Amino acid sequence: MQITVKLFASFRDGRAPTELCDYQAGTTVGDVVADKGILLEEIGVMLLNHRHVPLDGELAEGDTLAIYPLLGGG
Amino acid sequence: MSELLTYLAGRAVDGLITTGSQWDASLHFELGFAEVEAAILELGLWPARYQRNRQTISCAGQMRLLRSRVVVIGCGGLGGYIIEELARLGVGRIDAVDPDVFEEHNLNRQLLCTMANLGQHKADAAARRVGEINSAVRLVPHRTAFCAANGPELLAGATAVVDALDNLTTRLELVSLCQELGIPLVHGAIAGWYGQVATQLPGEDISRFFSGAAKGVETKLGNPSFTPALVASLQVAEVCKVILSQGGTISGRLLLCDLFNMEFDEICS
């Protein structure tokens, strides 16, 4: 199935900002995070088709997954 | 009081009272500088320092700012600019909460940090700075770390709270306490070229914008000079609107600023 993965801010370093990716049925948000080499503790917000989604959220054909880093400095 | 009002009205030029006349009135009538400011605004006149506010804020709005109390949690990169802007805006009381002293690595971005005050408390530097900027503003320094235990006392009676913290654990405590007390909270956070802003009004919850980790990507990316200045300004604009009950806030959304690619995104809660 085809999933659009959108990365923001520092997650774009060395990665495409937007990429159409092929994944097998049953792939979860956590699988994509691992595939992209993103550290879990660096994630702030994950949106699946503009709605908040947990790591175990399952993806479907045509979904758009957006991943934002956690910003904590002051 | 009517004597004071007559005194002030007699010194107004083009609807403005100079700082000198405000001081004269303060000494003559043995009133605080802020009390005289309130009297000026009550007359529909303006302290001359705010003459460039006039097209943006009404006289009644300026009075509302003077009567407000804003608590700023953190006096570092964000907090320094926030305190500066609140004081210039004319917010009557600012509580500055920070347990830290200035260190050399703060010089690249923290407005209140100078070579001369390294080793001194950030909250005290905030009080000195505000004293130099606006005598109508009372800044109360708190050389302590905000926590769930001292939070209720620090926030009691606040018109708005500003999150200028540098860690997620305390931020979540602040978010929760503001919910409990029904006080508007304006959140800001920065990391490298990136920053974010959100406003939590009473009855709302912005905690889902923050994951459980204690620190974000700023540990890797650091913080340059321009990101805190931008995010702090966005936060103060939010505070101003919250106090004045005017305009549209970012409530219900998180604004993400990517200054590297010059992109601004919004995430809904």
Report on the structure:
The complex is a heterodimer of chains A (74) and B (269). With 74 residues, chain A is mainly beta. Chain A has one domain: Beta-grasp domain (Ubiquitin-like (UB roll), Roll). Chain A has 1 helix and 5 strands. In chain A, strands 2-1-5-3-4 form a 5-stranded mixed β-sheet, covered by helices on one side. Chain A is globular. Chain A starts with a strand and ends in a 5-residue tail after the last strand. The model of chain A has no long low-confidence stretch (mean pLDDT 95). Chain B is α/β, with parallel strands linked by helices and 269 residues long. Chain B folds into 2 domains: 2-56; 68-268, Rossmann fold (3-Layer(aba) Sandwich), CATH 3.40.50.720. Chain B is built from 10 helices and 10 strands. Chain B has an 8-stranded mixed β-sheet with strand order 5-4-3-6-7-8-9-10, with helices on both faces. In chain B, strands 1-2 form a two-stranded parallel ribbon. In chain B, helix 6 (122-133) links the parallel strand 4 (93-97) and strand 5. In chain B, helix 2 (19-28) packs across helix 3 and helix 5 (77-89) packs across helix 10. Chain B is globular. The chains are: A mainly beta (74), B alpha/beta (269). The A-B interface holds A 8-10, 12, 17, 41-45, 47, 50, 52, 68-74 and B 74, 76-79, 163-168, 171, 188-196, 208-211, 213-218, 220-221, 223, 228, 254, 256, 258, 260-261, 265, 267-268.
Give the helices and strands, then pairings:
The complex is a heterodimer of chains A (74) and B (269).
Chain A: E1 2-7, E2 18-22, H1 29-35, E3 43-48, E4 51-52, E5 64-69
Parallel strand pairs in A: 1-5
Antiparallel strand pairs in A: 1-2, 3-4, 3-5
Chain B: H1 2-11, E1 16-17, H2 19-28, H3 33-42, E2 46-47, H4 59-66, E3 69-73, H5 77-89, E4 93-97, H6 122-133, E5 138-142, H7 151-155, E6 160-163, H8 168-181, E7 185-191, E8 194-200, H9 218-221, H10 226-244, E9 253-258, E10 263-268
Parallel strand pairs in B: 1-2, 3-4, 3-6, 4-5, 6-7
Antiparallel strand pairs in B: 7-8, 8-9, 9-10
Helix pairs in contact in B: 2-3, 3-4, 5-6, 5-10
